[in-house]
Amino acid sequence: MGNPTSQDADLIPDDLSGLAPWEAVPTDEAEAVKAIVQKIETRVRAAAASSPARRDAHPKAHGCVAAEFNVLDSLPSFLRVGIFSQVRSYQAWIRFSNGSEKPQKDALGDGRGMAIKLMGVERSRSGTQDFIMINSPAFFVRNAVDYVAFQEVANQLRFFFPSLNPFKFRIHELLMARAITSRIVSNLLSVQYWSITPYLFGNIPCKFSARPSGSKFTWNDRSTPNFLHDNLAKCLSAQGAAFDFCVQIRSTPDSMPIEDPTIEWREADSPFIPVARITIPRQSFDAPEQVAFCENLSFTPWHGLDDHRPLGGINRVRRAIYETISRVRHEINGVPRNEPVGISKLFTPIRSDGTP
Questions:
Q1: Percent of the chain whose predicted confidence (pLDDT) is above 90
Q2: How far is CA 293 from the centre of its chain?
């Protein structure tokens, strides 16, 4: 049993020419990105000396589930852009994960990730469209230079308080980090996720979000070390789930910056508008082959249409980091880098009688 894949993996733009007019690239960004990539590659290779190579962030997967991404049929013309330009359904894989660079108990404070990969996307270099989100509307690192500073400290508090000079304290960033790690999550299907960073929506900037739709779930036990996986498995064994996939159009540039993802784009300025519906059917997702498949997937904001091109410094950092980590871990683990094109041979639906 296998899963269809494309043979040209991780196809992303070759360069960053043609930057959007709202982007402003600092002169020291290129050197900062180079330093980040070198440090992370060194760390991934060192950690792989005693175990398989893992992602540098979000290494702990709670489950990789099959889904459908259905573009809504009642969208106004200004929302008929890119993926959403026509009414259609995409097969998708969704990977739920913890954000910490080391796998840890789910009870510890952490960001929770929802990475969505649509397949069969025409005009995409990779044939796919990825949406990378976490359960917080803002990040805690502003730019590439600050990312270097965060990567270099042994104690994370030193990033927020780098010296005794109060003018160098990163209080705002500390509050954003606390907001991420203090969120109590018991069921991954019951929380909202945000893209954090901006993207193009045709010729204007936007952010994306996925928010739960439908009835609340009763599987919220927190007594096991891996309760996020356990509750996800119990839930999808008994019933399906759904999310409204939404877009937030940038309406007030002064309060909705492109280059600073630590600033939340307030819904009071521009509400999230549903543009698609994600449906996750009842299923089992713990088969060894599917778990291995999930580990071998590569997600990056740069998989996708030019209509949804990533914007801002953190997305430019991600372009280099995600590609490097994907290349290195697949090389070390001896597995090919392929983009999936379907779900049928791995998807294990659960029937109405409760059997796979």
A1: 85
A2: 17
Query: Is 222 part of any domain?
Result: yes
Give the whole-angstrom CA distance, residue 208 versus residue 217.
24
Secondary structure of residue 55 in the 3-state scheme = coil
pLDDT of residue 158: 95
Q: Is residue 157 part of a domain?
A: no
Separation of alpha carbons 319 and 313, rounded Å: 10
How many structural domains comprise the chain?
Answer: 1
- Best CA proximity match to 348, nearest among 3, 66, 115, 116: 66
pLDDT band, very low/low/confident/very high, at 8 (cuts 50, 70, 90): very low
Give the range of the structural domain holding residue 56, as residue numbers without chain letter: 51-136+183-348
CATH number for the domain that contains residue 86: 2.40.180.10
pLDDT score for 14: 60
Q: What is this structure's pTM?
A: 0.94
Work out the end-to-end distance of the chain between its first and last CA atoms, rounded to an integer number of angstroms: 16
Please check the confidence at residue 1 and state whether its pLDDT lies above 60.
no
In angstroms, the CA 265 to CA 218 distance is 31
- Region class of 349: left (phi > 0), else alpha (psi between -120 and 50), else beta: beta
Handedness of CA 317, 255, 71, 238 (dihedral sign): positive
Give the integer Cα–Cα distance in Å for 348 and 109. 32
Residue 216 DSSP code: P
Strand partners, 279: 68, 242
Burial letters for 99-116: b for 16+ Cβ neighbours within 10 Å, e otherwise?
Answer: bbbeeeebeeebbbbbbb
Domain-located, residue 168: no
Strand intervals (E) in 254-335: 273-280, 283-284
Taking the CA of residue 263 as centre, how many other CA atoms within 13 Å lie in the half-sphere pointing to its CB? 15
Kindly give, in sequence order, each residue whose CB lies less than 8 Å from that of residue 346, ignoring residues fewer than 6 positions away: 1, 3, 66, 287, 289, 290, 293
Q: Count CB neighbours of 321 within 10 A.
A: 21
- Rounded Cα distance, 208 and 201, in Å: 10
252: in domain = yes
